[in-house]
């Protein structure tokens, strides 16, 4: 007998069940959209951002939380950043312009990414944005542009010792040359400190490298450079499922649980701790010879910058795909939904979004006959599969039902979306709530 509950159940924020169980709301949206769509909830994003900002204040650390815009393209997040006097991290001219258009002042914009083009550097200089530089040739172009515009604020990105093969960041020798070049550049260039980004979600390596860079800031100051900030990048963890569910499921994942025996290189760790703002608190509380990182930063008068994307979007969105058809395939079923797997980006990294989607039944009542089923997209490609894992559904999905993927705002919704087959991209629907009443609009 099949079990009626999927073993990898998503942990949802309070707003999410209320929204997905509101059939009148979803019917309204379906009538307008006529295809897949993403629900986004800016209030949850605002709560996440405020929690990070609260930790900085509680630890008496000056600094800024930069929303990593690449994690989601919606404009609604930017209005919340502006309201909370936050900051945004961008990596292209269109991102920069979009941020400005949503009320973020230039000095609250950080510019990262590989080898910024001259237009982006010029725009950053004009608007007093902060640019992370990680190569000597990029630094020379930045200085030339700064001479024409008056001033450019920069951080020097450091190659992490634990990632010597990364293509980002100055190695030790180039960093020394970059510091000398910044000092020689004069007033047109303000070298405000250092930055780094680490893969993974561990607390200790971030705290350790930040502590090391405090001394680097002191040395840079001895050369007349401001050096008053350190950016520790992103990589703030999220927990999508409960610990008990994740540990049991992760240990038992086998190829026969996936359609066609599909295998994957790795999965995101869907349960982690600490997460979000609690992880920032742990970084700041890390002690070095009895002194916390927070106290070391405060005493050295160094600001701490961070660039979370996924962690600010945790719990702030879900993706909804209408069911177009269902058929049985041996012992399990295959659901075909309107839309493409490119709107659920984990599949395009040789991985799988494991938290179980929900079935919303919109037809007449049917017998409770639990079934396992994979979920495919509506293209003609065999590999267009949203979920290879055989999900436990309480009943066979039918045409017109909805499949709801939880917690997809961070990197899932639009990282790899495509208008393949000339299908329109799923719109983002902004959800607002007062008591039990929901309103919605299409994000612009």
**Helical stretch count?**
12
**Separation, N- and C-terminal Cα atoms:** 47 Å
Mean pLDDT: 95
Look up the CATH topology of the largest domain.
TIM Barrel
Q: Tell me the major beta sheet.
A: 9 strands, mixed
Name of the CATH homologous superfamily of the largest domain: Alanine racemase
If classified by CATH, what would the architecture of the largest domain be? Alpha-Beta Barrel
What amount of the residues lies in strands?
Answer: 15-25%
Shape summary: elongated
Count of DSSP E strands?
19
Structure classification: alpha/beta
Helix content: 25-40%
- Domain count: the total is 2
What is the gyration radius calculated from CA atoms?
A: 24 Å
Q: What top-tier CATH class of the largest domain fits best?
A: Alpha Beta
The residue ranges in which pLDDT falls below 50 over 5 or more consecutive positions are none
Structure description:
The protein has helices spanning about 15-20, 25-35, 40-60, 75-85, 95-100, 120-125, 135-150, 170-185, 205-220, 245-250, 275-285, 295-300; strands spanning about 35-40, 65-70, 85-90, 110, 130-135, 150-155, 190-195, 230, 285-290, 290, 305, 315-330, 330-335, 360, 370-375, 385-395, 400-405, 430-435, 435-440. The protein has two domains: about 15-40 and about 315-440, Lyase, Ornithine Decarboxylase, Chain A, domain 1 (Beta Barrel), CATH 2.40.37.10; about 45-235 and about 270-305, TIM Barrel (Alpha-Beta Barrel). A hairpin with a 2-residue loop joins strand 12 and strand 13 (about 330-335). It is elongated and about 75 Å long. With about 450 residues, it is an alpha/beta fold. Helix 3 runs parallel beside helix 4 and helix 6 crosses helix 7 (about 135-150). Strands 1, 12, 13, 14, 15, 16, 17, 18 and 19 form a nine-stranded mixed beta sheet that branches. About 30% of the residues lie in helices and about 25% in strands. It comes from Xaviernesmea rhizosphaerae. Its cofactor is pyridoxal 5'-phosphate. GO terms for molecular function: diaminopimelate decarboxylase activity. Keywords: Pyridoxal phosphate. This is Amino acid decarboxylase.
């Amino acid at each position: 007998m099949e079990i009626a509950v999927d073993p990898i159940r998503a942990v949802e924020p309070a707003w999410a069940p209320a929204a997905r169980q509101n059939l009148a709301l979803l019917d309204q949206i379906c009538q307008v959209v006529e295809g897949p769509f993403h629900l986004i909830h800016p209030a949850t994003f605002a709560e996440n951002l405020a929690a990070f900002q609260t930790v900085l204040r509680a630890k008496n650390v000056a600094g800024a939380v930069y929303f990593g815009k690449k994690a989601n393209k919606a404009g609604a997040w930017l209005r919340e950043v502006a309201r909370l006097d936050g900051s945004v991290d961008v990596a292209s001219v269109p991102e920069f312009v979009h941020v400005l258009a949503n009320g973020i002042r230039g000095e609250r914009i950080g510019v990262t990414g590989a080898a910024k083009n001259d237009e982006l550097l010029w725009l950053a200089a004009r608007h007093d944005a902060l640019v992370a530089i990680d190569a000597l040739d990029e630094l020379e172009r930045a200085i030339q542009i700064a001479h024409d515009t008056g001033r450019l604020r920069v951080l020097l990105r450091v190659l992490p010792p634990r990632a010597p093969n990364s293509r980002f960041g100055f190695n030790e020798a180039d960093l020394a040359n970059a510091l000398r070049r910044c000092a020689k550049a004069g007033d047109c260039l303000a070298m405000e400190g250092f930055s780094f980004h680490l893969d993974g979600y561990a607390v200790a390596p971030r705290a350790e490298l930040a502590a090391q860079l405090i001394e680097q800031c002191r040395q840079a100051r001895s050369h007349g450079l401001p050096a008053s900030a350190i950016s520790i990048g992103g990589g703030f963890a999220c927990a999508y499922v409960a610990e008990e569910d994740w540990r049991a499921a992760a240990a038992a994942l086998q190829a026969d649980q996936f359609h066609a025996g599909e295998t994957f290189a790795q999965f995101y760790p869907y349960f982690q701790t600490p997460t979000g703002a609690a992880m920032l608190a742990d970084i700041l509380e890390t002690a070095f010879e009895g002194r916390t990182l927070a106290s070391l930063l405060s005493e050295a008068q160094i600001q701490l910058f961070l660039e979370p994307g996924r962690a600010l979007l945790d719990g702030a969105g879900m993706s909804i795909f209408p069911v177009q058809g269902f058929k049985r395939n041996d012992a399990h079923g295959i659901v075909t939904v309107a839309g493409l797997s490119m709107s659920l980006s984990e599949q395009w990294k040789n991985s799988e979004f494991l938290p179980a989607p929900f079935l919303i039944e919109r037809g007449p009542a049917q017998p409770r006959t639990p079934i396992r089923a994979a979920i495919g997209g509506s293209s003609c490609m065999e590999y267009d599969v949203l979920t290879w894992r055989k999900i436990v559904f309480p009943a066979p999905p039918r045409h017109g039902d909805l499949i709801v993927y939880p917690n997809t705002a961070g990197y899932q919704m639009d990282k790899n979306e495509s208008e393949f087959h000339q299908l329109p991209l799923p719109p983002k629907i902004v959800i607002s709530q007062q008591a039990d009443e929901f309103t919605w609009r299409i994000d612009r």
